[in-house]
Amino acid sequence: MSAAQRLGSNTGAVCALAIIVALIALALVGPWFNPNNIESLDWAHVAAEPGLMGAHWFGTDRLGRDLFARTLEGTRVSLAVGLAASAISLCVGISYGAVAGYVGGRTDHLMMRFIEVLSGLPLIFFVIFLTVIFGRNLYLLFLTIGAVGWLTMARIVRGQTLSIRQREFIEAAVATGASSTRIIFKHVIPNLLGPVIVYATLTVPQIILFESFLSFLGLGVQEPHSSLGTLIAVGAGEMEAAPWILVVPGSFLALLLLSLNILGDGLRDALDVKER
Amino acid sequence: MTRYFFKRLAGAIPTLFVIITAAFFLIRAAPGGPFDQEQALPPEILANLQSAYGLDLPVWAQYGRYIRALAHGDFGPSFKYKDFTVTELIEQGFPVTLQIGTVALILALAFGIPLGTFAALHHNSAADYATMSLAVVGIAIPSFVVLPFLGLFFGVYLHWLPVAGWEPGSIRHLVLPVIALCLPPLSIIARMTRGSMLEVLRTHFIRTAFAKGLPLHVVILRHALRPALLPVAGYLAPAVASIMTGSLVVESIAGLPGIGRYLVQGALNRDYTLVMGMVIIYSALLIAMGLVVDLIYAWLDPRIRFGR
Questions:
Q1: CA-based nearest residue in chain A for residue B236
Q2: How far is CA A155 from the centre of its chain?
Q3: Mind listing the pLDDT tens digit for each residue in B57-113?
Q4: Partner-chain contact B141 A254, CB within 8 Å
Q5: Coil, helix or strand at residue A60
């Protein structure tokens, strides 16, 4: 069976994929069907309950802002941060891991020791420091989260590189006089695709989680813009009087993270990637 | 063994020192200072405040002063919480944080390991799939979503447990925060135990143990569990880190008076000494956990020898 067939026979992963596609589609086209925008205040409906017949499908918050519009914006922000930061961590992780694995010896030992030290530290401290020092903006958020999210990827890529290095086509490339840089980028990295895809799908939810965690603490996305994390933070304070302010963004985040994780696990099984 | 332990302990001190130094200069590099307010203070008062706290000295001199005080166990005064020293703030909040964190870690191990073993023993059965599906939920959904949802269900609708708040000595107030905190590490531990247990169950010595006619519980408890727990032991330090970061949000949602809020608040307020105190506490805890993991490794796998 091919990898695609194996993935197709995994009902959970297929459902997860469908949910992800649906969420992305909703986040992108939903605003077209919604007369309300993220900032308009509807004083006639403050903290209104959700209802498909009413003016606000998912209800409104304490300021009368439409929760449907804000949740969709939050989903878009979370997805954008997740994808952009994953791309950054992917680039760093792949280059780092491939170099460490290919060069080997003392260099490898030192580079891996560095990763060990970093992964022993609670990286959230660094991100908190960085956001405090450089102010809070979305691009910096991409960069800081991406910069700390590459550790696992680097480890996995290194492990794979170690085994690829033993293969004959690498020996052939060395024999033809190709430089190490050329071998790493032309021969090693293209052969890492399988595990990289798997861990990329597993990195995205981790990074979305990280972003919403920071936004929850007030260090990420700032008002009037919303991220699922900020919406949940507001909702958690309102849950006794207006539970939907919490439940709507909370369910979106839970559904998104859960589907991405299930899809990632499904891909790992389908491509049969060994951990470490 | 003892020698190795002390060697590691000695090695931890430079690590901590590097962390302290990096954090000190990083937080000083941030724009603004502890006395920034909506309305700027008159320059004379600001100058007085700064000289009272030694902030008018060059940064390296401040660093020297801080390290010297630290060597005497003095974390310095807090800039924002007037009349409190950082030591006092930590003394008040740390027991709460330590309590919920320790209970969460113990629960994660006490439920994660049996669940993983159970799933491995029923490999590919409905029970296995059900357990692992629950584990994915636990891994995917963060504690700051789980806790409000738990509060909504058990607090607001069922009225079984308080949604938030804290009373000294009250266990009821700690139930939901501890559950929310322990679910992610619990799920990861269950998953890891299942994976390694499946591998161990395939080995020859387990087959031999069964062939001798040993009952299942003896094979598992006396033979299979020890090697199967090696990866779990390696996960202990990340688990502690995950519980620490989780407690930052869980304490603020549940309104617990722990030290979680001081890290973010301290950094935003430029409360230099408080942030440093938090960094030192958290990194010392993590480093200590790393040492404990080494000892557990040696106990689990007698082949590990602490030479060198």
A1: A120
A2: 18
A3: 788 888 888 888 888 888 888 887 878 888 888 888 888 888 889 999 999 999 999
A4: yes
A5: strand
Tokens of residue B191, six digits: 């998953």
**Complex prediction ipTM:** 0.79
Query: Which has the closest alpha carbon to A185: A98, A263, A127?
Result: A98
Tokens of A247: 């439940």
Quote the tokens at residue A50: 């959700």
Q: Which amino acid is at A45?
A: H
Tell me the CA distances in angstroms from A135 to A221, A225, B158, one per residue in order.
11, 16, 42
| A20-24 long-range contacts, CB within 8 A, separation 24+ | A20/A256, A20/A259, A20/A260, A20/A263, A23/A75, A23/A252, A23/A255, A23/A256, A23/A259, A24/A79
Q: Are B25 and B275 in contact (CB under 8 A)?
A: no
Residue A41 and residue B278: Cα distance in Å, rounded?
40
**Numbered residues of chain B with Cβ closer than 8 Å to any chain A Cβ:** 15, 19, 23, 26-27, 29-31, 133, 136-137, 139-142, 144-145, 147-149, 151-152, 156, 163, 237-238, 241, 244-245, 248-249, 252-253, 263-264, 267-268, 279, 282-283, 286-287, 290
pLDDT in tens, chain A (276 residues): 677 777 788 888 888 889 999 888 888 887 777 666 666 666 666 666 666 666 666 777 767 677 788 888 888 888 888 888 888 888 888 889 888 888 888 888 888 888 877 776 666 777 777 777 777 677 777 777 777 778 888 888 888 888 888 888 888 888 898 888 888 888 888 888 777 888 888 888 888 888 888 888 888 777 777 888 888 888 877 777 777 778 888 888 989 999 988 888 888 888 765 544
Nearest to A77 by CA among A253, A254, A270: A253
Residue A60 forms beta bridges with which residues? A66
